[in-house]
Amino acid sequence: MSNFIDEIVELNENKVIEMLKFKLDNNEDPLAIMEEIKEAMKGIGERFEKKEYFLPDLIMSGEILRQLFEMLSPKLKETGASEKKKGKVLLGTVAGDIHDIGKDVVKFMLDANGFDVLDLGVDVSADKFVDSMKDYKPQVLALSGFLTLAFDSMKEIIQKIKDAGLRKSIKIMIGGGTVDERIVEYVGADAYGESAVDAVNLVKEWV
Amino acid sequence: MSEKKPKELYKERFQRVLTTISIKEPDRVPIAPLSTFYASNQQGMSKKEAMYDPDKFAQATIKTFSPLNWDMVPPIAVMFNGTLYDILGVKYFKWPGAEEETQSLKDNMPYQYVEGEYMKANEYEKFFKDPTGFLLRKLLPRHYKNLVGFSEFPNLISLASGYMSQLGLPSYFALPQSKKMLQTIEQASQSFFSWIQTQLNYSRDMKKMGYPIQFLNITQAPYDVVSEFFRGMKGTMLDMYRKPEELKALLELLVESSIASVANLAKMFKENNIIFIPLHRGAESFMSFEQFEEFYWPTLTKIMEGLIKNNLIPMPFFEGKYTDRFPYLTEFAKKHKGRLVYWFDQSDIIKGKEDFGDYACIKGNVPGSLLVTGTPQQVEDYVKQSIEGCMEGGGYIVDGGVSGIPDESKPENVKAMTDATFKYGIYRK
Q1: Considering its fold, how many domains does chain B have in total?
Q2: What is the DSSP string of B381-396?
Q3: Where in the sequence is the domain holding B14, given as residue range(s)?
């Protein structure tokens, strides 16, 4: 029988679902299966980093993982185990902008790398970011925006974070469509990430 | 220049652009930017107003751009009409001031596309069996809330049922929702007609001042049409894995109809044969080389070839990064020397000049971030560098990267971009 982890990384949907059924029918330890799935997620992330996988592959892997988790979660709940995350990232598309493709890819890649991510969605106001920072206490704030109006929204959000006295406690990265290196200084962020891989590397560096 | 009559200026500007497209040197590098809400921002209009008052928007555009001496001015048709959208009950966009709460954005937010799965994965078969019927009864009502009456539209084969055929259409049009739909269409046509009138007036007014409009006609890559209006981004990407043959068949099916509708409209706009093709989901960040080759590029090139056969000039706008895909662009350009414009956003245009500059006219790509947050000096430096890298032998037009002039651009930067073109773009006096 071929390797479960490899089949997930290869995105062989029908095969992996069949394999998981077999594992569950044979009462394999759900925690061990979960470890294998996590290993596979890492593998998918690596392929994305190496530019062997792109958005369609991530979407497909998300679809496969969703099905695997659905099958596995009842058994996992029985074990009562919970995993420890590496760090917390607060994420959202800034006020005025409702684009979410780039943001969702960043979320996927951070998840896959073991970070805890709170996604505030799209068109998120400065106040909402500030309030969520107080409640969630993230180490990193990730601001996404596709439109050029996002530059000023990001600037306002970061200003409000400063006004609330929270700027020193957080690292801020920005990215998306028209955002580039030039915008970092304009909005007062710490770094710009061109891709979701950059986002993961920045968080790894900071946390 | 000021002594020339507008009529001469119009001809001269148009010719300058056409010469450079044909990969010959005009007297100067042309500048022909696009814009969406920049002009209305400049004239103090909200984005809602821009979408709901086309005449005022046209005036704002004229006021903003006519002093700049550009070779071609932006069309105002990129400003979608809020009234028409309300009448139809458009579901695939959100925009400022929309009547329907679910579609409404704040007054100063630009219109934005809404992701949606308008055709389900298991509906391919139904679609292929009867494309017209599917579009009419399924897709139209899913795209437009107020066209839901089409969902009951009778099968036209009923017209071939002898005595009974006379009853099919009247009984359908007697339904309350059909009446509402007819009303919607009537109102929509009126609204469309007045909107078109505004476009024509704008073109006429600009022409009187010696300005051609950059393009009057638009089409899309079949992959983007499927991704945005049929299956949604996620659905389309899953189909690449689960239903690749059905997806490809749908993409192919859209080729002929796209060419036909553009060519048809082009007969109305004889004066300008440049066709804008904004590309969305074929960029480097969206798919791999292999996926691009398999799903995106083949039907896009078929459309471009079809347009060229109809003596039209395709102007694909490569939003995002496409530098990795230059080998494909080069191969296509070699077959159609001087018949197309490649407009770039974040790709490396200097490399583009080396790769396909002898065959395809390059347009772009002053970064939006620079126009919005940079200084006039930085803009000038960027334009200078682009002109010096791309002007040789003709085949270069100055414009911004993402959709031309971003809404929030600083006017001094737009001016710097314009001045730099006149300063550094001269081939001969």
Answers
A1: 1
A2: HHHHHHHHHH-TTS-E
A3: 6-34+214-424
Average pLDDT over residues B42-57: 97
Q: Are A142 and A90 in contact (CB under 8 A)?
A: yes
Q: Are residues A177 and A200 in the same domain?
A: yes
How is residue B31 written in tokens?
């500048």
Residues A68 and A149 in one domain: no
CB of B345 within 8 A of CB of B320? yes
Provide the pLDDT for residue A81: 67
Note whether residue B97 is domain-resident: no
∠ CA B294-B351-B341, nearest 5°, is 65
Three-state DSSP at A35 gives helix
Cβ distance of B407 and A180 shorter than 8 Å: no
From the candidates A55, A63, A93, A155, which should be mutated to test the interface with B, based on the most B CB atoms within 10 A?
Answer: A55
- Give the residue-averaged pLDDT of B131-141: 95
The reply to whether omega before B365 is within 30° of 0 (cis) is yes
Using the Cβ of B234 and the Cβ atoms of chain A, whether some distance falls under 8 Å is answered with: yes
CB contact under 8 A, A13 and B106: no
Asked if A186 has any chain B CB less than 8 Å from its own CB, the reply is yes
Q: Are residues A136 and A70 in the same domain?
A: no
Residue B50 has pLDDT above 90, yes or no: yes
A60 and A105 in one domain?
A: no
Task: Show which of A23, A48, A79 is a domain's final residue.
Answer: A79
CB contact under 8 A, A147 and B112: yes
CB count within 10 Å of CB A171 equals 18
Pair A147, A189 in one domain: yes
Considering the domain boundaries, does residue B182 fall inside one? no
Do the beta carbons of residue A123 and residue A97 sit within 8 Å? Answer: yes
Does residue A143 share a domain with residue A60? no
> For residue A99, what are the domain limits?
88-206
* pLDDT per residue as tens digits for the range B305-333: 999 999 999 999 999 999 999 999 999 99
Beta bridge partners of B341: B361
Residue B408 touches chain A, beta carbons under 8 Å: yes
- Structurally, chain A folds into a number of domains equal to 2
Contacts of A148 in chain B (CB under 8 A): 368-369, 372, 402, 406-409
- The CATH number of the domain holding residue A61 is 1.10.1240.10
CATH code of the domain covering residue B281: 3.20.20.210
Q: How many CB atoms lie within 10 A of CB B410?
A: 17
Q: What is the DSSP letter of B228?
A: I
CATH label of the domain that carries residue A98: 3.40.50.280
Tell whether A125 and A40 lie within a shared domain: no
Which residues numbered 57-86 in A keep a CB inside 8 Å of some CB on B? 57, 59-60, 63
Q: Where are the alpha helices (DSSP H) in chain A?
A: 4-9, 13-25, 30-49, 55-79, 101-112, 126-136, 150-163, 181-187, 196-206
Taking only the tens place, the pLDDT of each residue in A7-44 is 999 999 999 999 999 999 999 998 899 889 989 988 99
Q: Are residues A121 and A186 both part of a single domain?
A: yes
Query: Cα(B102)–Cα(B199) distance, rounded to whole angstroms?
Result: 29
From A79, A110, A132, give the residue that closes a domain: A79
Q: Is the pLDDT reported for residue B297 higher than 90? A: yes
Reported ipTM: the value is: 0.88
CA–CA distance, B173 with B191 (Å, rounded to integer)? 23
Paired sense of beta strands B104-105 and B341-344, if any: unpaired
